[in-house]
Specification:
This protein has about 450 residues and is an alpha+beta fold. The chain has 13 helices and 11 strands. The strands form 3 sheets. A 5-stranded antiparallel β-sheet has the order 7-6-5-4-8. Helix 4 crosses helix 6, helix 5 packs across helix 6 and helix 10 packs across helix 11.
Length: about 450
């Protein structure tokens, strides 16, 4: 689509260049002709000086601002004398004279009076003629204006049927869009009808062409705004989430508050408002944790390389199954992830229902329960061991003996035994309560509708 748009712009630019070239060639030809247009013919056999003078006098007598000119012709050379109101009238007289056949040269002895009266009277006469024409044509203009008003009012009346468009449209945002479109269409139809009555459709065509060029320029300038507006329409039709859904949109995590015509409002888990432009939401990656309430938690624990990893897997799996918040369908999983230098890493996974258990609490409780069972059954959760060897000194044995000596002097900590029933995994609903409180304010725009299907 972008490629086609650039192709269209390229063709438009080429057309403008060709028009400029054609206009330049035409201007060059006009310049080569000395700025002369088609010559004015003199009657055959009468190309003498007297005939030229008589022809010029007849032409100037028909033009009000040139009546005072007095042409003199001798051997094809015309001398124009007399007075004209302004430079424009003088240039016009010279142009008309140069177009006559048989003229060798034109001498300009015209006096430009530049008087206020001589320059204002023709202007006032033209305006007076225009006003008289408008006065004669006022019934036609009245009919055109009446037609425009009636069609525009009809469009507004059709658009005002809010109950009808609320039924047809899937949401209020689309209903408002339909209403605005009908109103604009009514105004345009009324304008077309009025121009047709006035026989001025050429004016509308010129205005439409100019509006097209202006619209193209404005479209490039506000393409981000237009893209965001279209994205709002698409999101209102194909809703990817509901209010109060826990989502992640392009690494932005939070609870959905509302969808407006400009942005999607989230409340982060810290209680802050987050506005994401709808264009970014429509093109972004959306992870919805609420759509499927079941969610799998994962964690890893290491045991000593000398321990039996299969027995550790079985012990951890049984410990997960005993937890009340862990689902039995799907069942917990356990497997060996890797064998390290001093430990064997075991991977555990289990499913929880987020409607009944907070995910983070459940994961923490599961890790603690498995770790406690492994320690009770004699499995060692090793720490990284580093050995240094220097020739002539056994530092490893020295360090080991010192550590053992300190360990024998320091009492070993007693592990805290926790029953599975004591683990608190109650869902945290503080953010959801704040979202509900904000949504209870009915004066806020919201395009989310539970009646619409979720994409």
């Amino acid at each position: 689509m972008v490629y086609n748009l650039f192709q269209l712009i390229r063709l438009f630019a080429l057309a403008i260049i060709w028009l400029c070239l054609i206009a330049g060639v035409a201007f060059a030809q006009t310049a080569d002709n000395g700025g002369l247009s088609t010559p004015i013919a003199v009657e055959a056999g009468r190309a003498g000086d007297a005939d030229i003078r008589q022809r010029l006098v007849a032409i100037f007598s028909e033009i009000d601002e040139l009546r005072d000119l007095q042409p003199t012709v001798r051997e094809g050379v015309v001398v124009l004398s007399g007075s004209v109101p302004n430079e424009t009238a003088a240039e016009r007289a010279l142009s008309l004279t140069e177009r006559l056949e048989g003229i060798v040269a034109v001498e300009d002895n015209i006096d430009r009076t530049l008087s206020v009266e001589d320059n204002l009277n023709p202007l006032l006469e033209r305006y007076q003629a225009t006003l008289e024409g408008l006065a004669r044509a006022w019934p036609l203009y009245a009919v055109a204006l009446t037609a425009f008003v009636l069609v525009a009012l009809l469009g507004y009346a059709v658009a005002s049927a809010s109950a009808l468009w609320a039924t047809v449209a899937p949401n209020p945002f689309i209903a408002r869009l339909i209403v605005q479109t009908i109103r604009i269409a009514g105004i345009l139809l009324g304008l077309l009808l009025a121009l047709s009555i006035l026989d001025a459709m050429a004016l509308f065509g010129a205005a439409a062409g100019s509006a097209g060029l202006i619209g193209l320029a404005v479209g490039f300038a506000v393409r981000d705004t237009i893209e965001n507006y279209i994205a709002s329409v698409m999101l209102s039709l194909r809703q990817p989430f509901r209010a109060n859904d826990h989502v992640v949109i392009d690494n932005h995590e939070g609870i959905v508050v509302r969808l407006t015509s400009r942005a999607t409002i989230l409340m982060t888990l810290e209680g802050n408002h987050l506005r994401i432009p709808n264009a970014q939401v429509f093109k972004g990656i959306i992870l919805n944790y609420t759509r499927n309430p079941q969610r799998r938690l994962e964690f890893e624990l290491g045991v000593d390389a000398d321990d039996d990893p299969l027995a550790a897997m079985e012990a951890g799996d049984l410990a997960l199954k005993k937890l009340p918040f862990i689902l039995t369908d799907p069942q917990p999983l356990a497997g060996i992830k890797e064998v390290g230098d001093s430990s064997i890493v075991i991977w555990f996974a289990a499913w929880v229902d987020q409607r009944d258990a907070n995910f983070l609490k459940a994961r923490s409780g599961a890790i603690n329960a498995v770790k406690q069972v492994l320690e009770e059954q004699g499995f060692t959760l090793p720490e990284p061991i580093y050995r240094l060897r220097i020739d002539g000194m056994d530092l490893a044995n020295l360090a080991t003996s010192q550590v053992r000596q300190k360990a024998s002097q320091k009492p070993a900590p007693q592990p805290r035994s926790m029953d599975a029933a004591d683990i608190d995994v109650t869902p945290e609903l503080d953010v959801q309560k704040q979202v509900e409180k904000e949504r209870a304010q009915g004066d806020q725009e919201d395009l989310l509708n539970d009646a619409r299907p979720v994409e």
